[in-house]
Amino acid sequence: MRFATVPIAVADSVLPADHWPARCLQLVLGDQLNRRHSWFSRVDPDTVTVFQEVRQETDYVRHNAQKVIAVFAAMRAFARELAAAGHRVHYLSLDDPLNTQHLTDNLDALADASGASALRYQLPDEWRLDVQLSRWAASHHLTVTAHDSEHFLTARDVVSRHFADRRQWLMESFYRQMRQRTGVLMALDGGPEGGQWNYDHDNRESWRGDPPLPELRLPSHDHRALWVMIREAGVDCFGDPQAETMPWPLDRDEALVMLDDFIRNGLPHFGRFQDAMTRQDWRLFHSLLSFALNVKMLAPGEVIAAAEAAWRRGEVSLPTAEGFIRQILGWREYVRGFYWARMPELAEANALGNDLPLPDWFWTGNTRMACLAHAIGQSLSQAYAHHIQRLMVIGNFALLAGLAPAAVHRWYLGVYIDAFEWVELPNTLGMSQFADGGVLATKPYVSAAAYIDRMGDYCKGCAYDRKQRLGPKACPFNALYWDFHLRHESRLRRNPRIGMVYRNIDRMPDAERTAIREQAVFWRSRLDQL
Questions:
Q1: Alpha helix (H) residue ranges in 416-507
Q2: What architecture does CATH give domain 158-342?
Q3: Where are the alpha helices (DSSP H) in 383-438?
Q4: SS3 290
Q5: Which residues pair with 104 in a beta bridge?
Q6: Which pLDDT tens digit goes with each residue over 17-61?
Q7: Residue (of 159, 169, 164, 157) closest to 440 by Cα position
Q8: Is the pLDDT confidence value at 74 over 90?
Q9: Average pLDDT estimate for 66-94
Q10: Domain boundaries, the chain
Q11: What is the number of helices (H) and of strands (E) in the chain?
Q12: H-assigned helices in 284-382
């Protein structure tokens, strides 16, 4: 294959032409858009930076249209930025006739066309890509080197080494070590600021309209031309593309504006209401920074520093700052380490033997259950839902109903703008679906309707009655919740964190337990009709 030295057309701009030969190629993946990476600290005239839009990456699961558009648009923006700074760039668009649509096949062709003797890549964050590139490197005649992405606060193996001699993995232990190592929210006496490590219990309020929601700014981009190209290429997407008003940041400058806006206007109320749910707004006080973080426009350290600085200036409470920082300094680093410690076996985990297919309404949001209609509808239309919608509405139902965890994983991986496997898979199979048998989460995160009602306004006006366990109008969450514990009693009864559930079950008359089982069987046989 030969690559012509013609201008690289990317959306509405044109990058300078590549002129082979090149001594070194350096590959940048779609989630490695880090302007501050050391690769780009100086211009090397012998090096060409390579970007690829390939069907391999659009098709390994079915993706939300916004996710494909946003990743491609952000890649193109980064490529233009590098070219404008003097770096040599080769951008292989999805519709290029020379595109093999396969990552390493394209690298073979580019290596031949350029005459390069060396190639380097940043370590991928997904297992499948790491294996693909390392195997390709081992068999290639080029000198191939792997480099750190210079993004995370820990190495891949830090978590596994931290828990090497411990039976139980608990994020809190790792989080405290991270606080001590980094000095984040630490007092001069060596203890945590405020005397507590964790203020989670202060951050569980529902939101009933007060305080008013901030008018947080979001970007707006017109990517209709890019969306037409993606469709004409045959990529099978779902969800609302929002191609005329794409609301996600496409470069570091936009991401920094979003960060500053959140710190000033969203963070002050984020902590108290981070678990709240409402039909009135899809964002509430959440940052929407996870996409920018996960494609590496923003560094976790700078986001943490901004939140800590806001607390030290007295602009946010300590529980609020700690709750937000824990998600990044603790949980985000922890699940990444868990992923690398448990792959590839984690992807096949199914400790509870769940095997039901996803109901059709996972792809439409058309269900009479108001909480799921809203949470799934929002996921499809915005490519986003916050952690409680993902965990305690959608994931809760999937686990109670017995949906196949691999199918749930593929849906989560495809539907959310910020879903990349290193962070999504542990959260879905471990935290949400208990498919790993309780390694990541010490108990199944399930609830009946009462929790959903307490944390939001979904139950008002729902076709189902949140207070009823039995009957055609009863909320399906109720019978499914009790039946879940009955079905998995041999595994769960000894779990000290859910002992009260079984004490309540023990007080139930036999007839009531039988009726609950029958009601749950009824619901599980008619999931598409709920």
A1: 421-425, 449-455, 476-487, 489-492, 499-506
A2: Alpha Horseshoe (1.25)
A3: 387-388, 396-401, 405-415, 421-425
A4: helix
A5: none
A6: 455 789 999 999 999 999 999 999 999 999 999 999 999 999 999
A7: 169
A8: yes
A9: 96
A10: 8-147, 158-342, 360-529
A11: 23, 9
A12: 290-294, 300-312, 318-325, 333-342, 370-382
- What was the pLDDT predicted at 168? 75
Distance CA 402, CA 481 (A): 11
Are the beta carbons of 267 and 196 closer than 8 angstroms?
Answer: no
**Tokens matching residue 258:** 């979003």
- Is residue 104 pLDDT above 60, yes or no? yes
DSSP string, 124-192: PSSHHHHHHHHHHHHH-SSEEEEE--S--SS-TTHHHHHTTT-SS--HHHHHHHHHHHH-TTB-TTSSB
How confident is the prediction for the chain on average, in pLDDT?
A: 93
The second-level CATH assignment, the architecture, of 360-529 is Orthogonal Bundle (1.10)
pLDDT score at 19: 58
Dist CA 265 CA 47 (whole Å):
43
Q: What residue type is 440 in one-letter code?
A: L
d(CA 423, CA 60) in angstroms, rounded, equals: 17
8 Å CB contact between 334 and 286: no
Alpha-carbon distance 510 to 409, whole Å? 36
Helix (H, G, I), strand (E, B) or coil at 88: strand
> Strand, coil or helix: what is 356?
strand
Distances (CA, A) of 50 to 15, 294, 490: 13, 20, 54
Domain 8-147, CATH among 3.90.550.10, 3.50.50.60, 3.40.630.30, 3.40.50.620: 3.40.50.620
pTM, whole model, 2 decimals?
Answer: 0.94
The encoded tokens of residue 270 equal 């984020």
The Cα–Cα gap between 249 and 25 comes to 27
Task: Check if the beta carbon of residue 25 is closer than 8 Å to that of residue 48.
Answer: yes
Determine the Cα–Cα distance for residues 307 and 268; give it in Å rounded to an integer.
Answer: 10
φ/ψ of residue 14, rounded to 5? -125, 125
- Whether 119 contacts 144, CB under 8 Å: yes
Contact 371, 462 (CB under 8 A): yes
